Amino acid sequence: MKRGRIGKCMVAGVLTLSMALTSGAMAVGDGQPSSWAAAEVERAREAGLLDFEPHSGYQEDITRGEFAGLAVLLAKSLGCPVEELGQDSWQGTPFTDLTAGTEGVYSAAAWRLGLMNGVSDTTFAPDRTITRTEICVLLDRVMDVCGVELPQTVDGVAERMASGAEGAIPGWAAEGVKNLIGSGLMKGSGDGWQLSAHTTVEQAALLAVRAMDAGCADLEAKRFTAAEREQIAKLKELRATFGNPGEPYAQAPSVEEFIPGKLNDAFLQDALNALNYVRAVAGLEPVGMRDEKNQEVQLGALLLAAGGDEAFSTEPSKPKGMSEDLYRRGSQVVKESMSGREQRDLTEYVLNRVEDYSILFMGSGRRWLLDPLLTTVGMGYIDGYSVIQVGNGTSGEWDGPDYVTWPSAGVFPEELFHDKLGWSCLLKPGVYVNDMEDMDGVAVTVTDGSGNTWTDQVAEDKESADGAIHINLNDGYVRLNPSYGGTLMVVFHPVGLEYRTGEPITVTISGLKLRSGGTDTITYTVKLF
Fold this sequence. Notes:
- This protein has helices spanning about 40-45, 65-75, 100-110, 130-145, 155-165, 170-185, 200-225, 225-240, 265-280, 290-305, 325-335, 345-355, 365-370; strands spanning about 250, 260-265, 290, 335-340, 375-380, 385-390, 405, 410, 425, 445, 455, 475-485, 485-495, 505-515, 520-529.
- It is α+β, with helices and mostly antiparallel strands.
- The protein folds into 3 domains: about 40-225, no CATH class; about 230-390, CATH 3.40.33.10; about 405-529, Immunoglobulin-like, CATH 2.60.40.
């Protein structure tokens, strides 16, 4: 089996697929998938393999243009670099029958990736149906460009082909047929492999899902150690526990009447699961929450919702008509908490704060959520105003690692990563010198899997006339986030690197001064999955 090029998974911000095609795109088919295919079609949609609607029903034969879409999106899911696609990206091919719209765009992309050829030098025939023989060849090419080796689990395939039992198989198709039939992805029936038959849209979706699962399994085994795969499996289990918070209120609040209401347990649990997921990614212990703390924190959310922009302050103003006791309690909560507005739910707020575009500031959300000393949180939410209490008896003793990084050392989910992300390393209190004036020698070097290197040293924060720190996220930087609780955070943004699934990204932070004397260098590796 030939395996020339090794596929590399590109993540957001490198080379991405961006479809915004409406006019001329395939229309939604009238029918729905058959009951036996519904689950796999849904999986294909969730995985982004069906990022288009078939122009005919799911039980109709799939066309070359439609299968080109499946093939390109399958290649993308397996890490093959896919060019950015747009309305006019169908142009520049030799095929005179490709036009604007989804079929033309995907057909052109499949041709450029070397997955599909035309039926002649100038004709692609996107509307023509595709045979099972052609599908075998096409899926084998996808596996090849992505560096996937399909395990051969079906015996006697080569012998059956040589015997002529399946009819004459063209030389250009022989290897693809052998590989796909031998892997069990393409299955036959009592009448044989039926290589000249066509395939319905729902059958093609099933094939694409099978190919994705087989490809991911092979690539994961190549890219990650057994221990890393075990950690990935644990994180995936945790990831499945949140993302569906449901209705927020068990008892509806009233901002006008200053009634805090009560949040649904499932709504709160969803957010807590999200928080413990990102803590697990960072190698930290989970935190808990208590109902009485949540009820008190709900008063902080009420104060923010009632006070609006004026309440977002270290000294929130008192809304007109609010009782002094309610204001005092809500104000105290706000002082001990992280807070945000315009959030759909608390889960979204947790994920936004760990991403944290305000990472340079002392009170950054990531710093609080990934605090190794954090043991208990309280959560409140009213009309888009979110509050998470991280102070007031929520901390324990730091008995974890000497530093906490984000993206985390070890394996790190691609869904939490993008190339504008501010990287950080939170240092254990008491180990390193915590003097901002004595950190000139701190430098950071980041090296990607291809050997490209970015390096920079601590730079002075540039302040505008209003005193705010402004960063251009397209530029690299190294900053020191000021101390709180005796800790220091190194914050940096590498630029010009390539981030690929499973390829190690090595980070070195040097020049850190130890309280015991001398300097220290921290080195760790990140692998995206």
